[in-house]
């Protein structure tokens, strides 16, 4: 029997800094400080404390940053920044509004499909930023409440993003840490995500049955007017090429960030009139700083041995019943992601799983449970994901502008519709894990050697 680790000063101080940082991040809505500020503070505290106690320093902090995640997110944001002014997204939304012919559930399904398809390549925040204002425009023209469509956009993009390696930031973090390639991730999460997506769509149809039954009093007559159709088509070509390269990146020995960097480079040369300043306008620097700082914080906790200390209490449970541990992690990850945010929870869990693997523990299904849990769990509350927060914000702006409080998505409204959808998807995912556990329990081949916690 392996001797249990004993808590020491380094573990304790790193754990305290981790707790302070995460509490600050989780309570962002109460104190008003942006999460990136607390992450930066935690990163500096961890480096200084680590240097004092001898377990961390600035060089190790740089090595702890997962640049694959940072570069990939940054490049994808820049590509979207180039695509938005073309008018292609507006044309897409207008087309769907017209072919739905006033059938509200049909419109919900079409818009939900569009945001989901985009979420397979772009992160869900980007997709709702693009489609949120368009949904309000369409709903107001049809003289129906936009709430069902706004909620559907967020819930279905959150769910759909779970399917691919690049669809959601937690997926990127998991795939990069473990070295899971694009195809392997899609093979394991694609079917489960599709089943969950269908579940969410029909759950919303039931939950909004009264609102969707109302016959629209207005009509939508938007036109497909592209501002730059040539650039839109060029962008679609580049995205198509990127999809092919994402599926081949393991074979050609590229990290996913290299595919996104190639796509961005190709696009700025094809669209030579696009200024680099404009291409970088919508790159969310605070989000990238948040990720960098969070990696530094978790890296310090990892080097102190605190995560190995915590992991030793989980190992017996995992070894005794891996299926139960998988389903428990799925629900715990979902509930915590609904209550707080899925990114910090993912960042904390990754080194624990890597630490168990370093000790020879088979935890392959736990990686998939973590990805599914944090993805589906984001649907539960209005603060479960950044996409949710954005949708709530634009609904509040609309309510204020129209002087109609019923147009605002309150925390209670989100809980009333989002939580049943989340629970339904978790039940579906649990059943899939139960009946196909042999598939998820298989040896997980990786494309890179992930960094295990230091001993």
Structure write-up:
With 455 residues, the chain is mostly helical. The protein has 23 helices and no strands. Helix 18 (322-339) packs antiparallel against helix 19. The radius of gyration is 22 Å and the shape is globular. It starts with 8 loop residues before the first helix and ends in a 15-residue tail after the last helix. Mean pLDDT is 85; it is low at 448-455.
The radius of gyration is 22 Å
Judged by helices, strands and strand pairing, the structural class is mainly alpha
The fraction of residues assigned to DSSP E strands is under 5%
Largest sheet: none
Helix content: over 70%
Q: Helices and strands, in N-to-C order?
A: HHHHHHHHHHHHHHHHHHHHHHH
Total E-strand runs: 0
Low-confidence stretches: 448-455
**In whole angstroms, how far apart are the ends?**
18 Å
Number of helices: 23
Residue-averaged pLDDT: 85
> What shape does the CA trace take?
globular
Topology:
Blueprint (H helix, E strand, L loop, with lengths): L8 H18 L1 H4 L3 H19 L4 H7 L2 H17 L4 H13 L3 H16 L4 H19 L4 H14 L8 H10 L3 H26 L1 H5 L15 H24 L3 H15 L5 H4 L5 H20 L1 H15 L1 H18 L2 H17 L5 H14 L8 H17 L8 H25 L1 H4 L15
Helix pairs in contact: 1-3, 1-16, 3-16, 4-16, 5-14, 5-16, 6-7, 6-8, 7-8, 7-9, 8-9, 8-21, 9-11, 9-21, 10-19, 11-20, 11-22, 13-14, 16-19, 17-18, 17-19, 18-19, 18-20, 18-22, 19-20, 20-22
């Amino acid at each position: 029997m392996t001797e249990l680790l004993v808590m020491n000063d380094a573990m304790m101080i790193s754990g305290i800094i981790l707790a302070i940082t995460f509490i600050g991040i989780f309570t962002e809505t109460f104190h008003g400080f942006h999460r990136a500020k607390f992450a930066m503070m935690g990163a500096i505290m961890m480096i200084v404390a680590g240097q004092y106690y001898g377990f961390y320093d600035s060089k190790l902090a740089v090595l702890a940053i997962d640049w694959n995640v940072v570069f990939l997110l940054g490049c994808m944001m820049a590509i979207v920044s180039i695509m938005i002014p073309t008018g292609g997204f507006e044309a897409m939304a207008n087309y769907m509004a017209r072919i739905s012919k006033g059938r509200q559930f049909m419109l919900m399904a079409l818009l939900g499909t569009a945001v989901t398809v985009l979420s397979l390549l772009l992160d869900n925040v980007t997709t709702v930023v693009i489609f949120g204002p368009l949904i309000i425009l369409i709903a107001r023209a049809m003289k129906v409440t936009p709430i069902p469509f706004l909620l559907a956009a967020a819930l279905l993009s959150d769910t759909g993003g779970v399917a691919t390696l690049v669809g959601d930031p937690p997926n990127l973090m998991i795939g990069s840490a473990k070295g899971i390639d694009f195809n392997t991730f899609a093979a394991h999460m694609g079917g489960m995500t599709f089943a969950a997506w269908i579940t969410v769509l029909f759950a919303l149809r039931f939950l909004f049955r009264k609102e969707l039954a109302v016959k629209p009093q207005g009509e939508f007559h938007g036109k497909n007017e592209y501002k730059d159709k040539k650039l839109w088509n060029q962008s679609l070509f580049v995205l198509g090429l990127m999809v092919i390269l994402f599926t081949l990146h393991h074979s050609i020995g590229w990290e996913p960030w290299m595919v996104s960097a190639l796509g961005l480079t190709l696009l700025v040369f094809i669209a030579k009139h696009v200024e680099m300043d404009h291409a970088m306008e919508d790159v969310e620097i605070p989000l990238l700083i948040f990720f960098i700082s969070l990696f530094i914080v978790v890296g310090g906790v990892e080097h102190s041995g605190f995560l190995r200390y915590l992991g030793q209490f989980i190992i017996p449970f995992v070894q005794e019943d891996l299926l139960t541990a998988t389903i428990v992690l799925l629900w715990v990850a979902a509930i915590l992601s609904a209550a707080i945010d899925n990114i910090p929870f993912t960042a904390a869990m990754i080194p624990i799983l890597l630490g168990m693997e370093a000790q020879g523990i088979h935890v392959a299904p736990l990686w998939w449970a973590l990805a599914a849990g944090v993805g589906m769990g984001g649907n539960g509350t209005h603060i479960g994901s950044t996409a949710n927060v954005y949708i709530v914000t634009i609904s509040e702006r609309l309510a204020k502008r129209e002087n109609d409080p019923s147009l605002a998505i309150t925390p209670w409204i989100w809980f009333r519709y989002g939580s049943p959808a989340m629970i339904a998807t978790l039940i579906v995912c649990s059943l899939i894990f139960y009946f196909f556990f042999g598939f998820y329990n298989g040896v997980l081949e990786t494309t890179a050697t992930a960094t295990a916690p230091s001993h």
